[in-house]
Amino acid sequence: MRRTLTGALLGSAMAVVAAVAGGGGALAASEVNIYSLRQPFLIEPLLQAFTNNTGIKTNVVFAKDGVVERMKAEGINSPADVILTVDIGRLNDAVEAGVVQPVSSKTLEANIPASFRDPEGRWFALTQRARLIYASKERVKPGEITSYEQLADPKWKGRICTRSGKHDYNVALLAAMIAHHGEAKAESWLEGLKANLARKPQGNDRGQVKAIKEGECDLALGNNYYYGAMLSNPDQKAWADAVNPVFPTIGDTKGTHVNVSGIALSKSAPNRDNAIKLMEFLSSDEAQEIYSTVNYEYPANPHVKWSPLVESWGRFTPDDLPLSAIAELRGAAVKMVDRVDYDG
Amino acid sequence: MTAAADAFTGAGPAPGLTTAASGDGRRRWHVAALATAGLVILPVLAIVWKAFNPTENIWPHLASTVLPGYVITTLVLMLGVGIGTFVIGTGTAWLVAMCRFPGHRVFEWALLLPLAMPGYLIAYVYTDLLEFAGPLQGVLRAVFGWSSRRDYWFPEIRSLGGAITMLTLVLYPYVYALARATFLEQSICVLEVSRTLGHGPWRSLRDVALPLARPAIAVGVTLALMECLNDFGTVDFFAVRTLTAGVFDVWLRMGNAGGAAQIALVMLAFVVLLIWAERRSRARQRFHHTSSKMRPIEGIRLHGSKAWAATIVCAAPVLLGFAVPAAVLADYAFTSASAEWSPDFFRHALNSLGLSAAAALVAVALATLLAYAARQRANRAVLTAVRLASVGYAIPGAVLAIGVLIPFAAFDNAVDAFLRQTIGVSTGLILSGTVAALIFAYTVRFLAVSLGAVEAGLGRVTPSMEMAARTLGHSPSSTLRRLHLPMIRGSLLTAGLLVFVDTMKELPATLVLRPFNFDTLATFVYQYASDERLEACAPAALAIVAAGILPVLLLARSIGVSRPGRRRREN
What we know:
The structure holds 2 protein chains of 2 kinds. Chain A has helices spanning 2-23, 40-54, 67-74, 88-96, 106-111, 168-181, 183-195, 205-213, 224-231, 237-241, 272-283, 285-294, 308-312, 323-328, 330-340; strands at 31-36, 57-62, 82-86, 100-101, 124-136, 160-161, 219-223, 243-246, 258-266, 298-299. Chain A is an alpha/beta fold. In chain A, strands 1, 2, 3, 4, 5, 6, 7, 8, 9 and 10 form a 10-stranded mixed beta sheet that branches. In chain A, strand 1, helix 2 (40-54) and strand 2 (57-62) form a beta-alpha-beta unit. In chain A, helix 2 (40-54) runs antiparallel to helix 12 and helix 6 packs across helix 15 (330-340). Chain B is built from 25 helices and 2 strands. Chain B is globular, with a radius of gyration of 25 Å. Chains A and B meet through helix 1, strand 2, helix 3, helix 8 and helix 15 of A and helix 12, helix 15, helix 17, helix 21 and helix 22 of B.
């Protein structure tokens, strides 16, 4: 027993040294520090291109939850230069927590249209994503559903799948519904949608498409880029092949609900110049094309051509509701999900 | 030094055992214990502080909508996991300890293996297997010609029942380990008397062994329940809405960290209640061995169908909780085209091992300090501090991470501000965002585990030996070094191994607190698994499980030698 314990102690000590030695790599001369709410494999090609162009090293921490809290606690000494995230609500959280600072850059302002950035420059959208309805090729006729509102139609009873109503993307959609229709109508819409669900909300957007493929439901809500991701994944291509993507309209408009992914400059930003270079790079033609070809998202930069695959799904009109309206109604939307007991 | 029996048997510190004059180094131990406990409960205090500063009073909304559901779901989950872990853990422990049947030697250690399987992984795997789109239902549909969900009934894996099953499968080893060690410790006399009175094995279990083992089993079930209370990965994936899910909703979706901290405090109240109930249930129970007859247990030889039934009962939890999920992961890892075997993978593994080892060392050292100080005629303040030092175990990882961030960053920023003012040098963040913050978080989280094991080990050292050492002129420190530490080696090893395995699996706190460009196996798995790309991360997932196996086997061995009779022969 003694030998085991001594061995364990020695082994531990060696492993500690190794871990500490391996963990202290973030001190290169020219670098930029990124707190990311997006998965590393999604942003890696972009960061690689940035480093190749500028020689600036990128350091990343990825965490979905708690990044803003971390920046708040770290305060003026936070090593974060930029925060990279999806969903307008999360960008808004960072602004409200006071952990970001305004940027004024001619390049950014030229690349990103005014509707895709904060008027004060506290955040910039980099990509646009549309919330689609995926409809079964076999069981739903083309043109049978054209709007989000129709999801509440009793004819779809037991035929719809979605992820949790509390997920950022669904909350944003509901916030947009509230903005277009007012609270009362939006709430009865959500109740109608809940009544049509084939199963309790669960899984992620791809999981819903998989469920259509397996015949569990006929309609699902999902972001557009998952369609591209599934088509290019050998394990998931069959799921995507089972559905047609539909760009639904919202309210009385011809527009489809869209959300954004974006970037903001940290208030502390120890490498401010490099951070702005990164922001400018991510809005440039080169990076925006990567977003479109590798991640199947819509470039926020209107001058950039879409990748052929993304283009093949057709052009669509985004809902022109200001993003700030969606961010503001997010709290009301979450509470509505609770009241309707959507996930229950 | 009954190793795993010590796992948390936390018999409670024994105050005032020694009688030598005070002022000979005891005070130093008390001060050190108070300081340690104060440091460890800082994150909890930070959460309490947050709870008093909410951005909006969220209770009216929650109480009128989802809160009752959260509470009921949480209670049903705990009840289900409590019963499940008790029945499986105690039943298999009794069979393995007392009966002889095909494979019982293998099951002795194999029953611990699910401890190496993180709850979130087993949930991913079983969802893949059992959901509507999974292979099992696919085969059923093909065989019976069903086409849609409406044609037949199949249990929904993503449900409260599913969550109870998954958590039971990975948490029952806590109960098994403690129950088995206790059954092994029981003097054969008691059981022989029971047999003489004509009781069969099951009657002996119910009337004699179970009541005697009750304290240890209660500790095991309590630990399982605490783990289940702070689980987020499994319940989130299964869309089961517990209080933990509520914490995340309020925090992230409503942007109300204060409100989330308040719910976290409600959960803490649950745990305090649980600990209180557990301690109370054995308050008047003290079992000591009055006989030293510790010859090896002969074991009841089972025959025929009974023997095979015993084999099946023991094999089921091992297969379902370990073999099946591990096999599925291995299948993905070696056959799927999208499996990621990146070279970085070994760096992640090294990070995981290093962090786990460091956390194990620190947690055991601090636990020894606290438990030993409590033995040095500690006053109420010290005893309370020692108890409070374990509350971190009950707090969901991501919330605890925020609790760690606040004091660490405050300290760093204060040092920085002071040095800027005095000598004009900026130090930036010294500890935040480093491995140190991570190790601290793990220590706070898992100190309860190591403390229980060490306390129980120390509790078994007779006070008279301690008195003898002190009479011979040894200081408390020297007594600890020369007397206690050698005697409780087994408990220390158990404590360290348990913390090691738990740290390997830890995810939410690691995500928030880690340094730049730093991945562990768990965070690497998560970035793919959270995107439902289990095939991609299967190799890393398999590595987490593999790294957990060795400590688990060591643990099994240390329980095996815990039977006093057997050990004496070995020496």
